[in-house]
Sequence to fold (109 residues):
Amino acid sequence: MKPALFIAAVIVSLGTASSVLAACDDPAGPNVNWSNCDLTEANLGGANLFGANLTGANLYGANLNGANLTWANLTGADLMGADLTGAVLTGATWTDGRTCASGSVRWCD
Fold:
């Protein structure tokens, strides 16, 4: 690889890495990208996470009580000990890849 191309590739990869890490600090909101983020014991009660990307996120012990997870992607997320009481899961992609039925609350039906 030519030196100029190598330097350009390194700069692009560094820019990409920092933007991926920055997403974990983004505030809760519709379509937030928290894929692979560590959200252990996060307080997300009542949060509007409509369409959020939570693929591979660590939500161990998180408070998702009453959160709107409609159309959110939870594939591979760790929900062990998470409080999903009242969480709306209509159309969400569950941890195992299933699509939650319309009207799913707390559990993916």
In short: The chain has one domain: 1-109.
